[in-house]
Fold:
Amino acid sequence: MNIIRLCKDVNGLVSMEYLQKTIDYIEENIRGPITLDECARVCGFSKFHFHRLFSIHLGMTLCEYTRRRRLCYAMLEVIQGRRILDIALDYGYSSERAFSRAFLQEFGQIPSRCRNAKYSIPSKPVLSDSFKNWNGGVQMDYLSDVSIVSLPEMTVASGARISRDPEDEVIAYMTNWAGTVGIGSGTRQFGFDVPVSDEEQSQGLRGYEYWVVVDENLSPAVLPADITMKQVESCKYAVLRITEPFVDPFERIPLGWRKIAEWVHSRGYQAACDKERYWLEEKLEIDGSTLMDIYFPIE
Structure:
């Protein structure tokens, strides 16, 4: 099988091998501080690039993955008889109570009831094996075939939110602002996930940025303090369309990203690591149906 070359350096490493280095780093530092910044550095990507690729390939955020792996190791130490408070402190919890609450959520039992459990730590993910399991692709009737398009250079007004429901908040805000300054509803608009801090992730917060394409001569005077104007360079994308994405957004949208990633990987496309790229989502209303086009940047 021809495994992709999304991003290659002089040693010929591929993107999944870069991500595998981060997974290995987490295992080796499971008791230490693990941050988005440091994992992105280990991987050699920008924070944004790493955040998106990690979520696509692992199916969860870095914070969630790290939390679950730590609890796996903690379970083993509970069985070995260590004092629960010591385990809690070793794995970054501020108290035995906080640790027990997370443990219960993960395993369905409090630590003290698992002293005699039979348990082995699940193997760490091996991304090359995961890619092989994708062979044949994701086949769903609400996911289109993948095509290649180029988006031109754009001037955009950009707003962002960090909250438990950032998409709805920032989209409503940006749409309302566009209407007040006379920007028509037919103007192209794009959104995408943005990384948040470890502390924000632990609070259940997520980030989302939203763009409204504007005329390059738009006066900065019409921009509130929390909306900025950006110049986005042209880029080539692999594009996939999701029909009625919000019928089951936690299934359809992630599966769309998984299918498009598999398609890109299998065809040997690569992205420039020295440039900031955006994995875009564009919501469309056509003939009474809601659609979403997702854009995976390629070279």
About this structure: The beta strands are 147-151, 154-163, 189-194, 206-213, 228-232, 235-243, 280-286, 289-298. The domain at 1-133 is CATH 1.10.10.60 (Arc Repressor Mutant, subunit A). The radius of gyration is 21 Å. DSSP finds ten helices and eight strands in the chain.
